[in-house]
Amino acid sequence: MNPAKRCGRKAILASLLVLVALWPLAAWAHVESGQAGGFLSGLSHPVSGLDHVVAMIAVGLWGAQLGMPALWVLPVAFPMLMAFGGMLGLIGIPLPGVEIGIALSAVVLGALVLGRVRLPLAVAVIVVACFAVFHGHAHGTELQAGQNAMLYSLGFVIATGLLHGVGITSGLIQRWEPGAQILRGAGALVMAAGLYFLWGAAT
To answer: Is 51 in contact with 190 (CB distance < 8 Å)?
Structure first.
């Protein structure tokens, strides 16, 4: 099978995984409003802010550039540490410089994609995990009153995984030289967006 067909099949598989992940949403109409609201609010929260979106997609892009095992380790490490940060936010433990940390995550991750930087797996995980805590804390502190904290956390972890999936699927184009350059361009855009967010957070 040629590379184009393999890429197409992987893209279809990724789309099916997204549909399977979202399919249970239909059932939430039959549970208590606080529970449904908590899950749906958590699911929508990561995509409600461009700063979260670009950083989470960048994790997938960088993982695709690094290849196995980083391809799956980074998208697993990020939600896990993000859930930890979310717990800190939910129980009211402060974390200084959250908005700056989120903005820096886009700057650094974008620069890593732009430069096609290959770090040892352990270092790459540490970089991703540190930024994940800031993203999670921001989600945790924004839980609305009356909503289920556990389901809210589950929602934003699932949404984060889906955004990583978008980045990984998009990163498949790096197998061809023009695609690799496009991917580096995407990293530049992420970094530029991060600098904009950083300016906003610092002023």
So the answer is: no
CA 185 to chain centre: 19
User: Is residue 169 within 8 Å of 14, Cβ to Cβ?
Assistant: yes
Residue 32 lies in a domain: no
What is the pTM assigned to this prediction?
0.74
Tell me whether residue 177 is in a domain: yes
End-to-end CA separation in angstroms for the chain:
53
Q: Which residue has the tokens 């908005």?
A: 99
**Residue 73 lies inside a defined structural domain of this protein:** yes
In a domain, 165, yes or no: yes
Structural domain boundaries, residue 101? 37-202
| CA angle (65, 20, 82) in 5-degree steps | 55
110-169 pLDDT, tens digit each: 999 999 999 999 999 999 999 999 998 987 787 766 667 778 777 878 888 888 888 888
In one-letter notation, the amino acid at residue 201 is A
Place of tokens 């820096």: 104
Collapse the DSSP code of 57 into the 3-class scheme (helix H, G, I; strand E, B; otherwise coil) and give the result.
helix
Domain count, the chain: 1
Between vectors from CA 43 to CA 42 and to CA 49, what angle results, nearest 5°? 85
Could you tell me the sign of the dihedral formed by the alpha carbons of 114, 115, 121, 126, in that order?
negative
Q: Which two tokens stand for residue 34?
A: 């606080």
